[in-house]
């Protein structure tokens, strides 16, 4: 069964033809960059390790907490992929007991070229020495030698094992090429280095991760390739003697770079900057990740409570009426909807801080938003950082936003000795980009948001294409503004020849007739609109030799293995020679991977002005270390394929390594058509990701959760689970914000000593207590998973509370009909929940239920955090510790936040007495040490669980310390 909404056709094509005229000469500019072979794929490329001289350490000075030395080139310069820097400085800091920092940077730097090597704190947080830190008090130790050249290793003091070991290799430091090699243990276990779409969470030992932020409009889901974000950090876990130890290594450098994982070594290469490594000793995975956040990159921002609701967006919501129909569709299907989002459709010709008055008139929008907000729901429009440049010869082609920025002279410059603006192409046509290093850019960005909010009361943004994408080569708009508006140099979804007829695997078996029809339509379209052949320059085999004394930042000698054809730094981005307004005219070559962070910081600060005292809510497409302190992230234009759905789990866990727990994906997929089964299973999976959002493209069928009856029913069921877990998940975010803990977790993080869990990524955990075992392949009505910790750990079915009977290491088959996703609760956990309402606000007004899942000792613990869910710095909070032992539940409450909801029910799973189940008949309740009458309380047993009801009239749940004893 499919439901339809008025105003949307089956394929949901955009209304009418695109009014922009494509310009063939602009389209061809994409092909100006030459094609070269990446160095890692070029057998003729020289190996710097074989002929570079390395360095010698002199003037070594050691103190209680630091080591410094001069490093001098130990022979003739090799100039492998740049110009060797002869004199370096070593600085080692024991920053706290678990954190060691090793910096190597040029000894002599003029003020104007410091930014070439040293990453400014405003673009990426850095660590500092804690008071009292010393080498003697550290978990880690730095060792070095000078033979045959300078080498170092970082070791764990307790076990004397090397965690990072460059002994036996050469340190290479050139102005456009740096290399370090560390030896690795056999079959090592590394996780992290986002962002990439990968088939596994544990990285292969033969793998290369490239970092250079790019947006590939034609394929935003390249496998094992660079994407929108750069996070040079990994977690390594080592097993032995029925235990494990983990550590984190973070390379603080945001130049273009590669991490080459090889069977016996890890090779780190970057095309600029300096060595700036942080080591965190753990020894558990969660401890090491927390140390990274608390010590350097910052803990994650506290999201507003409503961010944990369900969100809906589609590129092709054509007007306010359609938005309302989508909202009504969810309401009619009895599916919670927290926020409706807008893709580009609401904008006037894709120009930011505008609206299309024909389809999104402002008066109608104001009425729409007033009704939406009155219902406790929210509106989240898209925002791009690029600013449309109008045709100065056309008086009707005005853009006040551009004019205000131009008056402040805040846009990124064309470079190469020019002082005029760099003009590339983005959605609206010729565009410029605010330079967030300019002192006036923050005021400009804030002012634009304030003015726009006066017109249309948005509730936050999703900040797109801030990886600094540009869809032509170079400043292609310079001298050509009379051609405005210009079409982007590719066909948009929904334009002739761009209807998507792809369906997920298994669709031909479940919908054979429709699959055949789609296949025929696809073939017909391909015949009518054949794909044009293009040439990307002239292929060059081999590398570009370095020229002494010259830095070639357009085509550097070391060629990164970038995802786009041609492997050029110029492809689909603002060119590396473009310059910023930071006082030194620093080039994009140095700063490209920082733009997501800088634009995110500016957006966060601007939203603080729009909503004084409230938590800003926005998503950033491009992130880097430190971004999690202000924003969340979504996983790009996911394909509607089962394999892509599977890979969202490794991606989500990897962003936990990066300190960005508020992560989600385009549920049901963005590119291609979802079918009922895929969308059903994906709605179930994403219900346990912090960001829960459904989004797809305008040239595919609509896929809102109410479109198929089975999907709607499955969504209602899984939404019930998600909403009951909202207090638990919100508490996890508080723990992440205050203590650096993780929200989504790999099984191996909660059970770090079980080596059999090291590669599991078809299951994951929400915090320490909730285990998810989703269905990840078509046509299945079961899922399979392990239950860690058995027999010492007990597990209970979330829905029935029956204890799972399973053997250690057993891969258990679980029933999973289409409407059902297996969820299990870990014994020893206490989870406070509320009955779901139609929004998070309504849910928070409902009575409390406490679920107690007992461990083998008949005990359990839990915690709960409460505040108003909106204030940036709430004055009133409440922290609750819950414990169950000796047939008594106790709560320890601190804080002044007033939660007026009563405690309605207590459910206990796993209670037994002499092999039987509970036979309690009464409860004894005290609040603050005072007995409270509890006549209406009822106790029943079902499926091995005890249900205590009728507590509503006894007391408010968390008004004071509570004690409930079962007799």
UniProtKB/TrEMBL annotation:
Q: Which GO terms describe its molecular function?
A: alpha-1,4-glucosidase activity; carbohydrate binding
State its Enzyme Commission number(s). 3.2.1.20
Instruction: Supply the Pfam families for this chain.
Output: Glyco_hydro_31_2nd, Glyco_hydro_31_3rd
Which keywords fit this entry according to its UniProt record? Glycoprotein, Glycosidase, Hydrolase
Q: Does the record carry Hydrolase as a key word?
A: yes
Task: Provide the leader sequence positions.
Answer: none
Q: Which family does it belong to?
A: Belongs to the glycosyl hydrolase 31 family.
Q: Under which name does UniProt file this protein?
A: alpha-glucosidase
